[in-house]
Design brief:
By secondary structure, the chain is of the alpha+beta class. Helices cover 26% and strands 25% of the residues. It contains nine helices and 15 strands. The radius of gyration is 33 Å and the shape is elongated.
């Protein structure tokens, strides 16, 4: 059967850019990844996944793409796409996933028949307090595990896979096309080198079944949104004896009612009364470690920032602890009585009489406004 055009497989034009090809491949890889397709659709999806992967490996390489554009499938070695099987998520999206403690990366399987399991991602929501202090979270992860009926072989209990009769275990067949000898993925075993004559009733020949794992994850102090924790070997089970993938726990810190985090520093808004702003005073402000005293000097203006050193977050990768920055907001009195309004009116009259002496910022602003309009009318 003739192979489908690589450009059509990736749904791109023949003059598509490298970025357009990569974007389309990612979308299709997610759509057809075997771990996202179960039951009857799994086999078809796996075949489609390998096809788009093979197409991408040719079209993403300038030299191979040029050979393909000139000679078609005969100009490239099509066996490159069939031997490894389904890539792990970390292979396809290597620029997305990371490991805050190092390590990671894809693994190769134990030969053409065994295939490494896919990596998985779990989104974990934490409170700010949990993220700063560290915690231990229990998570439930849906995952493909090795079938206990056939021990992952895919063959019915008492039987075992046999060498493919078409490719004799090579996973590839060689075909003559004109002047070229072309090596292709074996259509019988789809590059595996082995066939399952009598599939397992529980996993239907897949060697894996859907299950849910309950895991305990230690969250180190200081993690922040976007950090990822790698749990080696807790991803999808490998196929036919291949190693398991990894699980990446991606952290998301929920918004806090009081504090806003920026790196290792914390910020909070502190309302103060008008008399305190004028005369000064002492306030109790919250920190993640408890209440502390904050001295407000006399004549404090709204927006003034006060720094409490060492009251922030200790970074997960080590280093000095951040600070807590408190921004004061002067609260305008509300629900005033008639008597209070009269007192404020008298205070206003008294302050106005002092001119710039009492309100330097206001008079500076008004002088600037006057100068601006004078320039417009001159």
């Amino acid at each position: 059967m003739a192979k489908e055009d690589y450009y059509k497989l990736l749904n791109v034009d023949r003059n598509a850019s490298e970025a357009e090809i990569k974007k389309s491949y990612r979308r299709l890889a997610m759509k057809f990844h075997p771990d996202r397709n179960t039951d009857d659709a799994a086999v078809t999806a796996e075949i489609k996944f390998k096809e788009v992967k093979e197409a991408y490996e040719v079209l993403s390489d300038p030299k191979k793409r040029a050979a393909y554009d000139q000679f078609g499938h005969a100009g490239v070695d099509s066996s490159m796409g069939g031997a490894r099987g389904a890539d792990s998520f970390s292979d396809i999206f290597g620029d997305v996933f990371g490991d805050i403690f190092g390590g990671g990366g894809g693994r190769s399987g134990g030969g053409s028949y065994a295939q490494a399991g896919s990596d998985l991602r779990y989104n974990l929501e934490l409170t700010l307090e949990e993220a700063v202090a560290g915690t231990e979270a229990r998570i439930r992860v849906p995952v493909m595990v090795t079938c206990d009926e056939c021990n992952g072989s895919g063959a019915k209990k008492g039987s075992s896979p046999v060498t493919c009769s078409t490719c004799h275990g090579q996973g590839q067949v060689r075909m003559q096309q004109g002047f070229f000898s072309v090596q292709q993925t074996c259509p019988t075993c789809r590059g595996q080198g082995k066939q399952i004559k009598d599939p397992c009733r529980k996993c239907h020949g897949q060697g894996r079944v859907q299950d849910t794992k309950t895991l305990s994850v230690k969250i180190p102090p200081g993690v922040d949104t976007g950090d990822r924790i790698r749990l080696a070997g807790e991803g999808e089970a490998g196929e036919r004896g291949g190693p398991a993938g990894d699980l990446y726990v991606q952290v998301h810190v929920k918004e806090h009612a009081i504090f806003t985090r920026d790196g290792n520093d914390l910020y909070c808004e502190v309302p103060i009364s008008f008399p305190t702003a004028c005369l000064g005073g002492e306030l109790e402000v919250p920190t993640l470690g408890g209440k502390v005293k904050l001295k407000i000097p006399a004549e404090t203006q709204t927006g003034k920032m006060f720094r409490l050193r060492g009251k922030g977050v200790k970074p997960v990768r080590g280093g000095s602890k951040g600070d807590l920055l408190c921004r004061v907001q002067i609260e305008t009195p509300v629900n005033l009585t008639k008597e209070q309004k009269e007192w404020i009116s008298k205070l206003d009259t008294s302050l106005t009489g002092g001119g710039k002496h009492h309100s330097p910022q206001e008079h500076s602003f008004m002088d600037g406004v006057k100068s601006f309009f004078d320039k417009l009318t001159s």
